[in-house]
Amino acid sequence: MVQADLLIHSGTVVTLAGHSAQPARGQAMSSVGLIKDGALAVRGDSIVAVGTGAEVRAAGWLGRETREINAGGKLVLPGFVDPHTHVLYAGSRENELAMKLAGVSYLDILKQGGGILATVRSTTQATDEEIKAQTRKRLARMLSQGTTTLEIKSGYGLTVAEELRALHLIRELDEEGVQDLVPTFMGAHAVPPGWSEEEYTTLIAEEMLPQVARESLAEYCDVFCEKGVFSPESSAKILRKAREVGLKLKLHADELESSGGAELAARVGAVSAEHLLRASDAGIRALAAENVIAVLLPATSFNLAQNVYARAKTMLAAGVPLALATDSNPGSSPTESMPFVLTLACLYLKLSPEEALTAATINAAHALGCAALVGSLEVGKRADILILDVPNLNYLPYHFGSNPVETVIKRGRIV
Ligand SMILES: N=CN[C@@H](CCC(=O)O)C(=O)O
Ligand SMILES: [Zn+2]
């Protein structure tokens, strides 16, 4: 029999098995498939056996060439999937902290030419190598904290050439093969100075989207649907065109004001709706009815510091599948840490550790269309595995502010 390259044994293995066909919702989000004294065998970049130590050894994968890792009772998890990030950019915006503390709102900073527009300036002025070097550092911080697959949006370019450049850079970073990167086109991140919303919406629909599709540069299209940014009408126009050219849809919805974003995401058949801090009851019902995944971003709520969090429990009760992400970006969420997001999800979204973990792994993978490959520890899946120096699942969100991830295995290789 062929031998496994790697055997991880004596761990508390949380498989998240059984949710690969459909995102988990309701009660099923608590079903995490925990195996005490669990083991995993890996061959090449895939998982070939999962079970108790005795079961995996009996399966006969163990040979003289097999490297063994004794997890010593620690937690063994699938790599985190971060389904909403804006990590491709140059510069930073710590100067906005003082404005924020003085009471200037996120949208007012944007209206004054700061916020997203400030990052557009620093990014468009940077060379390809500068942008990639800065982004690699963020990706490395993500990997060390357990993120093995993530989405990256464009959106700090806002011209045809710059948006295409961003997507090319995401592709180049993906080809470096450290993590798996899922590209999203988000030309509709802000309206650039000198353009009306209508003119810029037409540019996105008529020029940007066809070129993105022609070069197969993105899997998803996303829009910042928000009062003063893109209206539901402009958002719908962009998303319908995106669907026509073959992209799947996401929507930044109801983040700062309730503007019917959740309803729109459901109406256009989006895979996911993001933020949803102020989603209406009707919006939540619509998400459930259309199987739209709610990607919740509690680190953004934390950082906006207005004490407004998405109504995760209401969504859960309504049957909306929940995912979690960092929203890593230089303005509203300057963090790369999925473990921190798990803590916030428990403390402020009131999710249980089991629900939060489901949201950060298999449901997050569904939000990126890659649940057949990642998000759980099951035979045939990619060997993206974490060993965390924590004694049980409750400890993971409970202890925050330091990195609990001890070992990261990406596609079968120890990082
Ligand atoms: N809200 C829009 N986009 C990001 C923020 C980007 C930025 O501030 O640079 C978000 O999801 O929070
Ligand atoms: Zn975002």
TrEMBL record:
Q: Where in the cell is it found?
A: Cytoplasm
Q: Give the record's GO CC terms.
A: cytoplasm
- Which residues are noted in the entry as Fe(3+)-binding? H84, H86, H252, D327
Keywords on record = Cytoplasm, Histidine metabolism, Hydrolase, Iron, Metal-binding, Zinc
- Molecular function, one GO term: zinc ion binding
The UniProt entry, under InterPro entries, shows: Amidohydro-rel, HutI, Metal-dep_hydrolase_composite, Metal_Hydrolase
- UniProt-annotated binding residues for Zn(2+): H84, H86, H252, D327
Q: Which residues form the Amidohydrolase-related domain?
A: 75-415
The entry's N-formimidoyl-L-glutamate-binding residues are Y156, N329, G331
Q: What does this protein do?
A: Catalyzes the hydrolytic cleavage of the carbon-nitrogen bond in imidazolone-5-propanoate to yield N-formimidoyl-L-glutamate. It is the third step in the universal histidine degradation pathway.
The protein here is known as Imidazolonepropionase
